Amino acid sequence: MSANALNAPGLRAWIDIPFQHDFPIQNLPFGVFETAERGPRLAVAIGDYVLDLYVLSQFGFFDDLAELGAAQPRVFRRRSLNAFLRLGRPAWRAVRQRVSELLRHDNPDLRDHPDAARDALLRQRDVALLRPVKPANYTDFYSSREHATNVGAMFRDPANALLPNWLHLPVAYHGRASSIVASGTPIRRPRGQQLAPGAAAPTFGPSQQLDFELEMAFVVGTGTALGKPVPIEEAEEHIFGLCLFNDWSARDLQSWEYVPLGPFLGKNFGSSVAPWVVTLDALEPFRTAGPAQEPTPLPYLQTVGDHHFAIQLEAALTPADGPETVLARPNFQGLYWSMAQQLAHHASNGCNLEAGDIYASGTISGPAPDERGSLLELSWRGTEPVPLADGTTRTFLLDGDTVTLRAYAEKDGVRIGFGEVSGTIFSE
Asked: Among 39, 201, 240, 316, which is most buried by a count of CB atoms within 10 Å?
């Protein structure tokens, strides 16, 4: 079965999957789960279930993939996808194809194998979903023109909101990989230096301007050697898939410290990553053109064809003991710089890529007020309080607030979802 056939709208699973569920058979995102009895395992999501790849391997369903390195059960009994990613794209595709075949409504191999089906399928509600990869490196880009323009207008001259380099290269900074946590992990309000308006000297204390950032991230699957650039036409061959990402930000710490070297303590206290990584293969039907780029990028950043993806995003806030309010709904396809351009630029100086690395998009915002992917923008730096469903307002996050990000792509009746990533703010 070809990669395109795995995405066919008419494909059905023998598992009951509700209409417009995030995880139909056309998706099959990869992640990691654990239970007290099993320990950590690799899995794919199908409907409301996780499919344990270690169990499938033990029952011999991957035996004919030995040449690709995917026949050994130990590959699937890990705490991250990293070892599986190192097997390379042929192995990723072969495993996804085999799983699709086993779940297809007209294939009895797994369905009618009572021991294998019973052991391999667990409800998501009964397992703990872990961080999908163990990133050695994390880079955060700044690729939304609307976001960069909004921030530039707030902190600099509105008439010259974008800095001179922004339209020529994908701006980014290297973040802290060790503080990337799994969805559901509580986020401690950071402490740091802040300079109050009109104050002559900074003070030290809890951040009063804690914020979320609605982002997507891509996960590197195939690494490179140090000193070896990646041509733009080969960039996507190094990308395994995409996941939701929230790069929490302490705006008051950040605004005091970022000159002249950029983000530091205002960012590195925590970032939240979703448990499921949706493969580029699953997203093929949703490719689309991105915004026109003017001036034309330098040759090493010029692309041919469609390298953006039409993915609808959503950010919601739930106060302690209150109802959820959807704050923003931008679209991923509006990013000025594509993932291919981000990766090609990142590697253009010979910086080596490693399997499991996370490359976040930066805050994703759109042109409309309800498409702004952070409270900094939604409240316009705290001057326009954002109304919530419980009658309260927010300029920045309070203790007890839970932020949840969601995303999906939809076409021809097929919805490819990313699940969600969430975190709740607390203070010690």
From this structure: 240
